[in-house]
Amino acid sequence: MGIFRYLIVRFRPYAETGEFANIGVIVFDLENDEADFRLANRRFARIGHFFDPKAHGAYSLAIQNLRIEIPRIVEYLPEAIASHSVSEKDHFWDLKESSILFSTPRVIRSDLHLTELTNQLFDRFIKRNFEKPEALESALVRDIRQILKRGGLTHFKGISINDDLIPLKLPLGYKNEHLAAIKPLAFDHKNPLHIIDYGAHWKKRLSYHLDKGNLFEGRLLLPLKLPQTAEGSHRDAFEVSYEDLKELPFDFTVDVGNESSIASDVLDFASRFPPTQPRWIN
After folding, report:
1. Among 87, 99, 72, which residue's Cα sits nearest to residue 13?
2. More reliable by pLDDT, 86 or 252
3. ∠ CA(225), CA(231), CA(237), 5° rounding?
4. Which of 127, 159, 233, 247 is the most exposed place for a label (fewest CB within 10 A)?
5. Three-state SS at 4
6. Integer Cα distance of 185 and 223 in angstroms
7. Residue whose C-alpha is closest to residue 92's, from 107, 108, 81, 106
8. pLDDT tier, 76 (very low <50, low <70, confident <90, very high otherwise)
9. How far apart are alpha carbons 258 and 115 in whole angstroms?
């Protein structure tokens, strides 16, 4: 098992806000004195997801410079960091990119080859973070499905609403005369503005299907996942989205990280729409 040290590369377009996005990793194999790195593409959706359009230009230039400078630096940096004789900042400061940050070195033990470990860390710190809201929603769907199963309510299945303009997939739904469904929404975005945008996005989408007669008053439950960050601006943004969504004639429950906090609301909602009993003809 080898010992590795790695840095996370971060893009911070506006120093005054302190907000950044992970855009790459640099990994050092300390036993073999080798280094590898992986950076996000120049067209990286996360930048548009987190920041305003002006950040795109700065990111494109920064990533271009990093692809030139990092290979030069990693040739001699592993031994210096391993011996603690020099800080990684002493080498990386000369990139002259105020929008680029580097985490403090972290140590990891692994049986993987250097390149494989680099890809694994890239997937962990770059790809996974970007997909986090969707992953949280999927996890919440699994939790709710287990709640329903324990309550003997297994008739809620995935349902699709086919529409030429705005098709909609609902992970938990049941249709007898009209559709009843449960659609979790996770608001764990890095930028508070995107929390508000996400709420507005779903309000518009659900309003459209309500007007079209595909969704019905009192027959949709929206479990809402709070932002995991404790920063006040994120919670404030969630409250704005929550108040906006509550204008819709649906039911809501807020998940605060404890399954029992939503279990009773889920079971109460689903119990209102029991499965249709088959009719037997004599």
Report:
1. 99
2. 252
3. 55
4. 247
5. strand
6. 6
7. 81
8. low
9. 38
